Structure formats: C-alpha cells, structure tokens
Amino acid sequence: SAVARIARAQYSALTRPFQAAMHEYNQAEMKQRENCKIRIQRQLEIMGKDVSGDQIEDMFEQGKWDVFAENLLADVKGARAALNEIESRHREMLRLESRIRDLHDLFLQMAMLVEQQADTLDVI
Q1: How far is Cα 43 from Cα 71, in angstroms, rounded to an integer?
Q2: Which residues contact 13 (CB under 8 A, 6 or more apart)?
Q3: What is the pLDDT of residues 28-44, one digit of tens each?
Q4: How far apart are the C-alpha atoms of 67 and 56, rounded to whole Å?
Q5: How far apart are CA 109 and CA 94, in angstroms?
C-alpha cells in the first residue's frame, strides 16, 4: 500500500543519516579515548610511574580510575608535606641568617669601640 511505501521511504531516509551520525560519534569517541590515554600516559610519566599501555587500557576497561586518583592524591599530599617542610626550613634559615647578621653588626660595633678607646685600653 501507499502508506507502507511512504513509511519505508521515511525509514530509509532517516536510517542513513542516523547511521552516519552514529559512525561519526563512534569515531569521535575513539579519538577522545586515545587522546585521554595519551594524556594519562604523559601524566604518569611526569609523576615517575611506569605504566604500560596495556595497564592503561585495563584501567579504561575496568573503570579503575579511583586507584589512579587515590595514588595521585597520595602523591600530591606527600609533595605538599615536603613543600611545607622545605618552606619551614627556609624560614628557619632566614631567621638564622638575620641573627648572624645581627651578631656580625655587634662584632663590628665592638671593634669600632675598641679602636676608639684603644688609647684608654693601652693605659690600663
């Protein structure tokens, strides 16, 4: 019947663009997945982690990103703790440097006083 032909024509007309759109979507998804794997591989290399492409693929397949995130958070916490310790030592060194300068100035003043009063000291 005419209605069935129209329905088949509409189905055919809509199916082709839908398939093309789905193909394009799948291509974009695969490209994004590869870009993501490359970025994660670089980040792991920067962090000093030795992870193979197969391990990253397994992480993708199993959805085990929480392990990666926990390790990353632990590394960040460790780095922050080290930074805090370094900053604390730096402040201590600055205080020590200031005290040494004050002591140096005190010795210079003492040397000037001794020089100024050298005659008086020679008499004693």
Answers
A1: 12
A2: none
A3: 999 998 888 888 778 77
A4: 12
A5: 23
- Residue 101 is encoded by which pair of tokens? 């300068």
Domain ranges for the chain, please list them.
Answer: 2-95
Calculate the CA 36 to chain-centre distance: 16
What is the DSSP-derived secondary structure letter of residue 51? Answer: -
Instruction: State how far Cα 9 lies from the chain centre.
Output: 55
- Output the pTM of the full model: 0.46
Alpha-carbon distance of 50 to 44, in angstroms, equals 7
Tokens of 104: 């140096």
Query: How does DSSP assign 3-41, residue by residue?
Result: HHHHHHHHHHHHHHHHHHHHHHHHHHHHHHHHHHHHHHH
